[in-house]
Amino acid sequence: SVKQWRAEGRIAVWLHIPILQSKFITAAALQGFTFHHAESNSSTLTLWLGEGHSRLPGYATHQLGVAGAALDVDSGKVLVVQDKNKTMNAWKFPGGLSDPGEDIGDTAVREVFEETGIKSEFKSLLSIRQQHRHPGAFGISDMYIICRLQPSSFNISFCQQECMRCEWMDLEELAKTREATPITSSVAKLLLYGYREGFDKIDITMREFPAVYKGLFYKLYHRELPDTYKITTEL
């Protein structure tokens, strides 16, 4: 097959091997195939047949974590937790890893509910942290996004397997305390600014557009535009 593909002028081969047929990996490796990525029930190998170094794209290099800052605008309190099994018991916003195919806002809402029992609605993005060579992510890069959420329930029933403490804390207190993680403290100050001066000054909102790929859509996150700039004009 490899000889035929070369003769046909193909420049690359993708080989998907189910886990129960893993014995074929050795034969593929002897033909020059290398691992590209693996999933729970299969692995994918590649062979570059073109000239020079392989120009095939690498597999995913980042993991995405999302937290939700659920702020009750009536009381000025925000939902915070302290994780179990951490070296430092610091206050933080509840959150976790995004599932494949899950929107950022949906991850925030789901994680907040799973950890605290609080229902909420996604309102905006507040911050993005980027960290390379993350020790807890097998050395790949990590993106950590904090969203602003609007809670719709208030009785806490937190997950005792993940959380040691959970409470509604005054936002101003969270912005001042030294018992919060650095990123939580920074975002609490940003949230306090928006709470006092207007969330339009801090919110990164979302709009959905049809993608160039038929039947698919994408989410675009950006600062809200003034109405005068939302109108498409021809020059």
Automatic annotation (TrEMBL):
A GO cellular-component term linked to this record: nucleus
EC number: 3.6.1.-
Keywords: Cytoplasm, Hydrolase, Mitochondrion, Nucleus
Pfam family, one: NUDIX
Entry superkingdom: Eukaryota
UniProt GO molecular function: ADP-ribose diphosphatase activity; NAD binding; NADH pyrophosphatase activity
Intracellular or extracellular location(s): Cytoplasm; Nucleus; Mitochondrion
InterPro entries linked: Nudix_hydrolase, NUDIX_hydrolase-like_dom_sf, Nudix_hydrolase6-like, NUDIX_hydrolase_CS, NUDIX_hydrolase_dom, Pre-Nudix
Role, per record: May contribute to the regulation of cell proliferation.
Family: Belongs to the Nudix hydrolase family.
Name of the protein: Nucleoside diphosphate-linked moiety X motif 6
